[in-house]
């Protein structure tokens, strides 16, 4: 396998993993709906998700060449994590 082929494979794996991470964070939508319906869940996991994703976005942004798969897949985790925490506390 050539170095160029290997680079293409690694890039594709990065984007596939990013899509899978986004799908994982989208699962917070179910918890948000439950929170709004009055069945609040724990806020520990979404708080830790926001912290974790924030550090990954910062890492991807501060690299000499921005790591877009890492940035893109962790932004939804920040947004949905914050919404989950807010709805758990309000409802």
Describe this structure in words.
The radius of gyration is 16 Å and the shape is elongated. It has one domain (3-90): Monooxygenase (Up-down Bundle). With 91 residues, it is mainly alpha-helical. α1 (3-26) runs parallel beside α4 (68-90). The relative contact order is 0.19. The chain has helices at residues 3-26, 28-36, 44-62, 68-90. The longest helix has 24 residues, at 3-26.
Name the descriptors:
Monooxygenase
**CATH first level:** Mainly Alpha
Shape: elongated
Rg calc: 16 Å
**What's the total count of β strands?**
0
Q: In percent, how helical is the residue content?
A: over 70%
Sheet with most strands: none
**Structural class of the secondary elements?**
mainly alpha
Give the rounded overall mean pLDDT.
94
- Determine the CATH topology: Monooxygenase
Secondary-structure element pattern, one letter each: HHHH
- Strand residues, percent: under 5%
Q: Number of domains in the coordinates? A: 1
Low-confidence stretches: none
Oligomer: single chain
- The span between the termini is 55 Å
Question: How does the SSE layout of this entry go?
Answer:
Elements: H1 3-26, H2 28-36, H3 44-62, H4 68-90
Helix pairs in contact: 1-4, 2-4, 3-4
Summarize the entry for a quick read:
This protein has helices at residues 3-26, 28-36, 44-62, 68-90. It is mainly alpha-helical. The mean pLDDT is 94.
